[in-house]
Recover the amino acids of this structure.
């Protein structure tokens, strides 16, 4: 009896195990039916799957291209110009305070991206006077005064840069070599005297040249050569024209500051007009002049294949002698866009008893601006360029 009872127990356990196995098998089968093999595909799958190839007669749909943004043109560059500057006689004491030597007109110069003047003096306190009537010199602090007023470059290509002979010229070149303020129009040899000062303003390259056309003793005795120091003058006109053409070919805006004309003559000479035409044809964008001690007319000059803005005379600026006829002065500010002078604004001033330019105001401003515009009548210049 005991054996039969034990046998039924073993059988019961085996039957239970078998039952569990059967149930497990059924569950597995059901799961297989409910969740098919993910790697298997059906006709429906193949039908609904996106095709990776197009038939020969199907139409290709290209994505809409993103438009290339139009580049923003660089903002205009402003260039300010003023006339003859020196520190002698009544203007010598202005250097006791170099930071304030120019007075309030410095605000107009500083507002431009680049400002330029003609520095009509040797930079020295030594040397013997050259055999001529007038002699101008100033200590190195003259350059400090220019820089404090917002001047960025000056020309010494004029008839007073070598008033104190070889010693004065040696001192002048030594001061320039210290790099306090860029100077053009004078150098240890012709290569440096005729070389431009080049700078960039917001990606626009600008080259500034200085040249003298005043044919006096300085022109005859102190024009720089390949082997001797001096000023840049039109005695070697071809070198200047070639330099302007090279700077133009390099893509620069080209400025030429010229010392020229006849003292007291309010109209340009044929010699001045000829030089301006040659410079414009070589690619100069603006030609600015001084020497006559008067304001002269300004406007556009068309030359073969190009045009330039020409201001024949900006008169005195910081000046030793008081004359009612030559006290009118001011700052000419040009706006350049895409390499072209597109605007000109004249800020008038009067030279005061200390020899310093004082801006005018109110109705006097408009009157003097109108008078400056009227000076163009004898120049043959245009109100707008016809050649770009």
């Amino acid at each position: 009896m005991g054996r039969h009872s034990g046998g039924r127990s073993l059988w019961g356990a085996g039957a239970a195990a078998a039952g569990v196995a059967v149930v497990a098998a059924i569950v597995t089968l059901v799961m297989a039916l409910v969740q098919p093999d993910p790697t298997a595909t059906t006709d429906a799958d193949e039908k609904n799957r996106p095709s990776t190839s197009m038939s020969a007669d199907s139409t290709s749909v290209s994505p809409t291209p993103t438009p290339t943004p139009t580049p923003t043109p660089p903002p205009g560059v402003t260039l300010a110009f003023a006339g003859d500057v020196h520190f002698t006689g009544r203007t010598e004491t202005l250097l006791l305070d170099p930071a304030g030597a120019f007075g309030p007109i410095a605000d107009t110069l500083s507002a431009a991206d680049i400002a330029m003047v003609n520095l009509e003096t040797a930079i020295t306190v030594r040397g013997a006077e050259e055999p001529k009537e007038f002699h101008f010199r100033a200590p190195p602090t003259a350059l400090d005064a220019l820089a404090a007023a917002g001047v960025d470059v000056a020309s010494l290509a004029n008839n007073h840069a070598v008033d104190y002979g070889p010693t004065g010229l040696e001192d002048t070149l030594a001061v320039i070599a210290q790099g306090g303020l860029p100077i053009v129009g004078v150098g240890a040899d012709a290569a440096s005297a005729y070389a431009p000062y080049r700078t960039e303003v917001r990606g626009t390259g600008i080259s500034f040249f200085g040249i003298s056309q005043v044919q006096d003793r300085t022109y005859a005795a102190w024009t720089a050569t390949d082997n001797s120091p001096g000023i840049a003058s039109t005695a070697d006109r071809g070198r200047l024209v070639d330099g302007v053409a090279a700077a133009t070919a390099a893509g620069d805006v080209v400025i030429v500051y010229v010392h020229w004309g006849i003292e007291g003559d309010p109209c340009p000479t044929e010699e001045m007009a000829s030089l301006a035409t040659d410079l414009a044809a070589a690619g100069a964008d603006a030609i600015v002049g001084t020497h006559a001690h008067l304001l002269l007319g300004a406007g556009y000059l068309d030359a073969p294949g190009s045009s330039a803005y020409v201001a024949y005379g900006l008169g005195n600026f910081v000046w030793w002698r008081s004359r009612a006829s030559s006290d009118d002065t001011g700052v000419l500010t040009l706006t350049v866009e895409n390499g072209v002078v597109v605007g000109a604004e004249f800020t008038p001033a009067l030279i005061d008893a200390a020899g310093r330019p004082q801006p005018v105001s109110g109705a006097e401003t408009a009157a003097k601006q109108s008078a400056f515009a009227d000076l163009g009548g004898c120049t043959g210049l245009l109100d707008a360029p016809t050649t770009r």
Q: What stands out?
A: The two ends are 128 Å apart (CA to CA).
